[in-house]
Design a protein that fits this description.
Elements: H1 14-25, H2 31-48, H3 55-69, E1 73-74, H4 87-93, E2 95-96, H5 98-111, E3 116-120, E4 125-129, E5 137-140, E6 145-146, H6 149-160, H7 176-193, H8 197-210, H9 215-227, H10 231-244, H11 249-262
Parallel strand pairs: 1-2
Antiparallel strand pairs: 3-4, 4-5, 5-6
Helix pairs in contact: 1-7, 2-5, 7-8, 8-9, 9-10, 10-11
Amino acid sequence: MLNLIDEDFDAMDLAHGALALNKAVNPETNSKWVRKELKRLCDEAELALVAETDQKQKFNAFLNLFYGEWDFSGDQEAYYDSNNAFLDKVLENRKGIPVSLGSILLFIGSRLGFPLETIAFPTQLLLKLSWPGEEPQYINPFDGEVVDKHTLKAWIIGHRGPLESLKEEDLEVADNPTIIGRWLALLKTALLREERYTLALRCTDLALTFVPDDPYEIRDRGFIYQQLDCHQVALTDYQYFIDQCPDDPAAELLKSQVNAMSETPVTVH
């Protein structure tokens, strides 16, 4: 189940890479249905847009289809709900976050021949639309709107601080492993908020297959084990973080936690 590291994400489209991730975290994910639904949407889009000959008009019609008739939208009311990061739930509910909606929009749009690429913008995933001979446009998958550079700069300032500026690297095309890594982090955060610790633990274990010695991931794993009453394992993970990151402010807090847990009787599982 946790053999995700063997997946060749660069050889897969983003949607199927995300599906592999979802399945690894939650084995109950209905992968077969997701693949059929993605194909069905592609077929429906091709049929609906067959009369459009101008590519730009066709793209606008595609956005109207996606966000209008199909009713996909960003989840304004429950943005951090884990359902918004599981591809099957997004396809069922027609609600998601930029990375999940963007992967579906990219999947269908690419099959329709639109020049779309992914941008791992610091605040969220964007889609880059590059018509020949024109400046690229940046699409916000949350609502399908074009975002200008003035707005992107404002997002950067809100994210990094008032003295920051929009840099070229902020708008570089990202590879699928980068997007999948960020997706995994978002999914883990959502599951932790919902106290779904068993699934969150799978996220952490998956992340550690890619970066085995990441002290922050190991710290998070320790927190999850603590919630699952596996105190001895949690102590080991916390101590690793303290040893590796002694100057991190969290290290001092964890020292107190370790001392308190060391005095607690060990639960045998």
